[in-house]
Design a protein that fits this description.
- The protein is of the alpha/beta class.
- The protein folds into four domains: about 1-205, NAD(P)-binding Rossmann-like Domain (Rossmann fold), CATH 3.40.50; about 215-290, 6-phosphogluconate dehydrogenase C-terminal fold, CATH 1.10.3660; about 330-335 and about 560-760, Enolpyruvate transferase domain (UDP-n-acetylglucosamine1-carboxyvinyl-transferase, Chain, Alpha-beta prism), CATH 3.65.10; about 350-555, Enolpyruvate transferase domain (UDP-n-acetylglucosamine1-carboxyvinyl-transferase, Chain).
- Helix content is about 40%, strand content about 20%.
- The protein is globular, with a radius of gyration of 30 Å.
- It binds shikimate-3-phosphate.
- Shikimate-3-phosphate (S3P) binds next to helix 17.
- Shikimate-3-phosphate binds near residues 421, 494, 521 and 665.
C-alpha cells in the first residue's frame, strides 16, 4: 500500500503500527525518526526488524560522547551537522508520515516538517487529543493542510518502548479519525484503509466530538485518580493510612501510576473539554454530600445501583460469551452453491408449537421441529413447568398438553439461553399464572430490552421486575385472574411484543387488542386458530379474550426462510450457482427477503406453492444473477427483519449503492447488527457506513479477506461465511458457537452445496 512509511517516534505505539503495517503488507519500507534521546529505541527497533532504517536529529548530539560512540558504530544511524537534515532524509519520498510522539511535541514536529511538507505525502498522527493537533497545524501552517489526517487509536499497554510493541495492538480496537473540514477525502480514505488493514474498527468524527468523549472516559478518570492520591498521600504522611489500604484503593488508583508529564500535557491540550466535566463531577459529589447530610439513603442506593448497572453495560462490551467451546469458521474464498437442500424448521413456529401444544387439551404431534438451542430452551422451560414432551427425534415431538391452566410452578429459574422469543413470549404467558417465576438468559439476552413487553403487561396489571436497565432477569409474580385486557398500539413493529400480549390476553378479563404499526409475523395468530382458539383480526388489530380453549392439533413446521436466506443470497452472488430449497415457509409476513433480493435483480422462482397446517409453503429455486444496489423500501423491513446481516452481504456484491433505513430494531437483536456488520464489512474492505437506523453500502467493489467476529450472533457468523463465496481471499469468522442457536447443520450443509468452510473447535 505505502512504498515508504515514515514513523516519527518509534515507541510502543509507533512500533506496534510498524509491526502491524509490515505483517499486513501495508508498507514496503518503514523508516523511523527521532531525537537523540530516542536513539536507543530506534536502534532496538532496527535490530528487531520493526523498521528498516532510522534517522536521528543531531541537535545536542556532540556533547554526549557515549551516545556518539554507539551511534557511529551503528549501521542504521544517519547523522548530520545540520539539525534538519535527518528529518528531511527521513520523510523524503514517504507516502505517509505518521507522528507517534506525545501530543505536546506535535507543534514542534510540524514546525520541523514544514520546510519539507510535500503534497504527495499523507500526514497523520496518533495523539490522544485531536483539537490540539488541528490547532497546532493552524498555528504552524496558517491553515490545516488538506493532506493532514489526525487519528487516535484507542489502545495501549502498560509497558512502553518498542520492545513492548505488539503486532495486534490495534486489532479489533476502536480507532477514531478526525479530519478537518478541508481534508482531502482520498487522504482520509487511505488512512482509514491503513488502519482497517491492521484490523482496527475505524470511526470518523470531528475533533471536538472526539475530545469530548475522551475527556469524559479517559482524561477525567485520570484526573480523579491523581487527585485522590494527591489528597490521601498528604494524609498518609501524617497518619500512615496507606498501610491499611487494600484492593479497592489499588484498583481505583491504578491509573495514577501513569506518566505525570504525559498527563499534564493531555490535560493542557484538552482543557476546554475537561473543565465543564470537573464542574459536573463537583455537582455529583455535592449531590452525594447532600444525600448523606439529609439521611436520604434510598436516593443514595439508587445512585449507586444506577452506577453499578451502567458499569456492567460498559463491561458487557468486552466480555467473551461463555460458551462450552469456542468455534471459528475458516472460509476459503470462491465457490458456488449447487444442488438441493431442505434447511431446518422455522424457529418462530417451533417455539410456538411447544407453547401452544403445552397449553392445549390433548396430544399434539409436531414434525419439522427445529432441534437447535433456542427452540430447545423453550422446550426445557415447559418441561420445567411439568409438561410431558417426548422427543425430539428427527424433528418429531409429542406434547402431552396440560390445558390453559395446567402449568406447574418450576422449581428453579427458567433459563432461556440466547432466545429473545422465548423470554418475551413467556413473560406474557406467565404474567397471568397462579405461580411466580423467574426468567434468565445468557449474556446477550440479559442485555436486550424487555421494557417493550413489561410496560404494556404492567398496564394489564402484571407484576414483573426487571433490572434498572429494563433487562432480564425477569421476576414475575403470577397474577392469575387479575389481568385486565387492554387496547394497545405497539410503538414498534414487533411480533414478539404482539405475541406476548396475545398470550397474556388468554388469561385477562375482557378483550386484549394489539395494533401493529406495520405487519409482523403472524404465526401466533395462525397457530392459535389452528388449535381452534378464537382470534379476531381486523386490519392491523388482533383481539383475543380468555374465553376459549386450545384443542390439540398436529403441526408440520416448514423450513425456516430466515435460514434459507443465507442460501438465497449465496446462490445469487456466486457465479454458476443453481439451488433448489425445499419446503420453505413463505408466510407473507416473512418473505421480505425474496422481495428485496428480487428488487436487486435476483433470480428466485417460487415453485409448488401449497398450504401445510395453516402456513403457506413452497420450493425456492435460485440461480446466480448479477445484483444491483437499491434503496430498500421501509415497508419491507419488518418482513425481512432477521435477514439483514446476509442482505448486507448481497448489497456489498451488488453494483452501486444500497441504502437501508427504518431498521433501528437491528440494533437490539442478538447483537447490534448494524454496527457489527458495518465493522466486519469494513474489515473486509467494503465501503459500509452505519447510520442510526440502517446502513449505506457502496457495492460492487472487491470483498477482501480477513478476520471478523460474529460477536456471538448466529446470523452474523453465517452472513460473513456466505461473503466468502465472493471474497478475493480467505475469511476467518471468530465466535461462531452461536450458530447452534438456530442452524446447527449450517456448516455441513453449506459445505455440501459448495462453500469450502472448515470449522475449528477449541
Ligand atoms: C420473532 C420476531 C422477531 C424476530 C425474531 C423472532 C418471533 O423479533 O427478529 O428472530 O418469533 O416472534 P421482533 O418481534 O423483536 O422484531
Amino acid at each position: 500500500m505505502f512504498n515508504k512509511l515514515c514513523i516519527i517516534g518509534v515507541g510502543l505505539i509507533g512500533g506496534s503500527v510498524a509491526k502491524a503495517a509490515r505483517a499486513n503488507g501495508l508498507a514496503k519500507t518503514i523508516v523511523g525518526y527521532g531525537r537523540e534521546q530516542d536513539m536507543f529505541n530506534l536502534q532496538t527497533a532496527k535490530r528487531l526488524g520493526v523498521i528498516d532504517e532510522f534517522y536521528i536529529d543531531s541537535v545536542g548530539w556532540v556533547s554526549d560522547s557515549v551516545t556518539q560512540q554507539n551511534a557511529d558504530t551503528h549501521v542504521g544511524l544517519r547523522l548530520s551537522p545540520n539539525p534538519t537534515y535527518a528529518i528531511e532524509q527521513a520523510v523524503q519520498n514517504a507516502d505517509c508520515v505518521l507522528i507517534a510522539t506525545p501530543v505536546a511535541s506535535i507543534e514542534a514536529i510540524f514546525t520541523q516538517l514544514k520546510p519539507f511538507w510535500s503534497k504527495d505525502t499523507i500526514y497523520t498522527d496518533v495523539g490522544s487529543t485531536k483539537g490540539s493537533v488541528i490547532a497546532a497545524a493552524e498555528r504552524v501552517f496558517g491553515v490545516v493542510p488538506d493532506n493532514l489526517v489526525p487519528a487516535h487509536p484507542i489502545a495501549g499497554a502498560e509497558q512502553s518502548g518498542v520492545e513492548a510493541a505488539l503486532v495486534d495492538l490495534f486489532f479489533h480496537k476502536r480507532l477514531i479519525i478526525t479530519p478537518a473540514k478541508c481534508a482531502n477525502p482520498a487522504a482520509v480514505q487511505t488512512i482509514k484503509a491503513f488502519w482497517q488493514g491492521q484490523g482496527a474498527l475505524v470511526s470518523v468524527m470531528d475533533a471536538q466530538h472526539h475530545d469530548s468523549i475522551l475527556a469524559a472516559t479517559s482524561h477525567l478518570p485520570h484526573i480523579l485518580a491523581f487527585a485522590l492520591v494527591d489528597m490521601l498521600g498528604h494524609k498518609d504522611e501524617q497518619t500512615e493510612i496507606f498501610k491499611y489500604a487494600a484492593g479497592g484503593f489499588r484498583d481505583f488508583t491504578r491509573i495514577a501510576s501513569s506518566d505525570p508529564l504525559m498527563w499534564k500535557d493531555i490535560c493542557a491540550a484538552n482543557k476546554q473539554e475537561i473543565l465543564p466535566l470537573i464542574e459536573q463531577l463537583r455537582a455529583e459529589l455535592a449531590k452525594i454530600h447532600g444525600l448523606l447530610v439529609n439521611d436520604d439513603y434510598q436516593q443514595l442506593f439508587s445512585t449507586f445501583a444506577y452506577a453499578k448497572s451502567a458499569r456492567q453495560r460498559f463491561l458487557n462490551q468486552f466480555e467473551v460469551p461463555i460458551m462450552s467451546k469456542s468455534i471459528t469458521f475458516h472460509i476459503q474464498n470462491g465457490g458456488k452453491l449447487q444442488g438441493e437442500a431442505r434447511v431446518p424448521g422455522d424457529k418462530s413456529m417451533s417455539h410456538r408449537s411447544i407453547m401452544l401444544g403445552s397449553l392445549a387439551e390433548g396430544v399434539t404431534h409436531v414434525k419439522g421441529f427445529l432441534e437447535a438451542e433456542d427452540a430447545l430452551a423453550t422446550l426445557q422451560a415447559f418441561r420445567d413447568m411439568g409438561v410431558e414432551i417426548e422427543g425430539p427425534v428427527n424433528g418429531e415431538l409429542t406434547i402431552h398438553g396440560v390445558g390453559k391452566h395446567g402449568l406447574k410452578k418450576p422449581e428453579g429459574d427458567l433459563y432461556l439461553g440466547n432466545s429473545g422469543t422465548s423470554m418475551r413470549l413467556l413473560s406474557g404467558l406467565l404474567a397471568g399464572q397462579l405461580f411466580n417465576s423467574v426468567l434468565t438468559g445468557d449474556k446477550s439476552l440479559s442485555g436486550r430490552p424487555m421494557k417493550r413487553v413489561t410496560e404494556p403487561l404492567a398496564l394489564m396489571g402484571a407484576d414483573i421486575k426487571t433490572t434498572e436497565k429494563g433487562t432480564a432477569p425477569l421476576v414475575i409474580t403470577g397474577k392469575a385472574g387479575q389481568l385486565q385486557g387492554i387496547d394497545y398500539l405497539m410503538p414498534m413493529a414487533s411480533a414478539q411484543v404482539k405475541s406476548c400480549l396475545i398470550l397474556a390476553g388468554l388469561y385477562a378479563q375482557g378483550e386484549t387488542s394489539v395494533t401493529e404499526p406495520a405487519p409482523t409475523r403472524d404465526h401466533t395468530e395462525r397457530m392459535l386458530a389452528g388449535f381452534s382458539y378464537p382470534v379476531k383480526q381486523e386490519d392491523s388489530k388482533v383481539t383475543v379474550t380468555a374465553d376459549g380453549k386450545l384443542t390439540a392439533a398436529d403441526i408440520d413446521v416448514p423450513s425456516d426462510i430466515s435460514s434459507a436466506a443465507f442460501f438465497l443470497v449465496g446462490a445469487s452472488i456466486a457465479e454458476g450457482s443453481d439451488l433448489l430449497l425445499k419446503h420453505v415457509g413463505i408466510n407473507p409476513t416473512r418473505t421480505g427477503v425474496i422481495d428485496i433480493l428480487r428488487l436487486m435483480g435476483a433470480n428466485i422462482e417460487v415453485l409448488n406453492e401449497r398450504e401445510v397446517g395453516g402456513e403457506p409453503v413452497a420450493d425456492l429455486h435460485v440461480v446466480y444473477s448479477p445484483l444491483k444496489g437499491i434503496d430498500i423500501p421501509e415497508d419491507l423491513v419488518p418482513l425481512a427483519i432477521d435477514e439483514f446481516p446476509v442482505l448486507f452481504v448481497a448489497a456489498a456484491c451488488a453494483k452501486g449503492q444500497t441504502r437501508l433505513s427504518g431498521a433501528e430494531e437491528l440494533r437490539v437483536k442478538e447483537s447490534d447488527r448494524i454496527q457489527v456488520m458495518a465493522d466486519g464489512l469494513q474489515i473486509l474492505g467494503v465501503d459500509a457506513v452505519p447510520t442510526a437506523d440502517g446502513m449505506i453500502i457502496q457495492g460492487g467493489g472487491n470483498i477482501g479477506g480477513g478476520t471478523v467476529t460474529s460477536h456471538g450472533d448466529h446470523r452474523i457468523a453465517m452472513a460473513f461465511s456466505i461473503a466468502g463465496l465472493r471474497a478475493s481471499a480467505p475469511i476467518t469468522v471468530l465466535d461462531c458457537a452461536n450458530v447452534n442457536t438456530s442452524f446447527p447443520e449450517f456448516k455441513d450443509l453449506v459445505k455440501n452445496l459448495g462453500l469450502d468452510l472448515v470449522c475449528e473447535e477449541s
